[in-house]
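Predict structure. Input: Glycosyltransferase family 2 protein, 308 residues.
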Amino acid sequence: MIDILMTVYNGEQYVIPQIESILNQTDSNWKLFIQDDCSTDRTVELIEPYVRRYPERINLLRNEKNSGSAQKNFFSMLPLVEHSYCMFCDHDDVWKPRKVEMTVRRMMELEQANGQDTPLLVHTDLAVADENLKVLSDSMFRSQNLNRKGNRLNNLLVQNNVTGCTMMVNKALVDMVGPAPKHAVMHDWWMALIAACFGKIGFVRQATILYRQHHANEVGAKNARSLSYNARRLAEREQARKVLNDTYLQAREFEERYHALLKPEDLELLQVYQNLPYFGKLRRIAVLFRYHLFKHGLARILGQLLFV
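Output follows.
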C-alpha cells in the first residue's frame, strides 16, 4: 500500500484535475491524504465530494493555521504514513496514468537489492507544462540541465536534483526524518540527503507527471540552458548568496541530527562544507575542488566560483 500526501492552498483552479489523475492510475493500491493549509477559496468545497465518494481512499485534513510553506505542510504530514511506501503530490500538477506503477516498480527493484530496512528513494523525470497543460518541455532534466546520476552526498550538498512531486520513499526513510528540520531547504532535498548517506536513490527516466507552471508556483522549473536566465542569476548577487548560505545551514543541521550514524567520510564532508563561510576565498575554492563539491553545468560552476 502507498500513502500519497498532497498539500493544497487556494487550489480551486487545479486540484480537481490532479485528484482525477490519481484516481486514473493503473496501480490503485494507494490512499490519498489531502491537507489543506487554510485555503480562502473554494478548495475544500470542491474536495469534499471526493471524500464522500471515496471514503476508504481519500482523506481531507485541515490545518488550524497556515503553515507558511508547502515544505512545512509536507513535513507535518509524515506521521500519517503507515504503509510501506509514501509519495508526495502537489495540487497543481497532473499525474500520468502509469506514474504510481512505474515508480513502485523501481522501488521494488531497489528493495530487492538493498532490503526493506534500507532508506530508499525513487524519483522521476517531469514534463514541464504551462497553466493549460500545454507541454513546454518533455524533460525537465534536459531543460534544466540536471544530472540524474548526481545522487552522491557531494552532489546533493550543493544541488538537489530530486523533485518532490515525483518522489517515492519507503517507510525506513520516513522513519529517519523525525521532527521537521528547521533549516531544510525543501522536504525533498532533506530526504535525498538521508538516502544518499544511509540508503540508495533510484531514478525513472520517463516523465511521470505534467509539472504545471503558473504565476502562483512556489518553486518552478527554469530553463537552465538559457543565457538570459544565467545572466540574471549572476546579477542577483544577494539572492545567490542567500541560497548558498541556506545550503550551509542545512548541512549543519543534518550533521548535528545524524552525527552518530554517519560514515566517517560523510561526516568529514558535511563538517567541511558547513564551515566554508569561515574560510578565505582561495581556501573555499580549494575545498570545492578537493571534495568535488560542484553543481552540474558550466554556468552553475562559474556561479559557484564567483559567489562561494
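Residues 85 and 170 are 4 Å apart (CA to CA).
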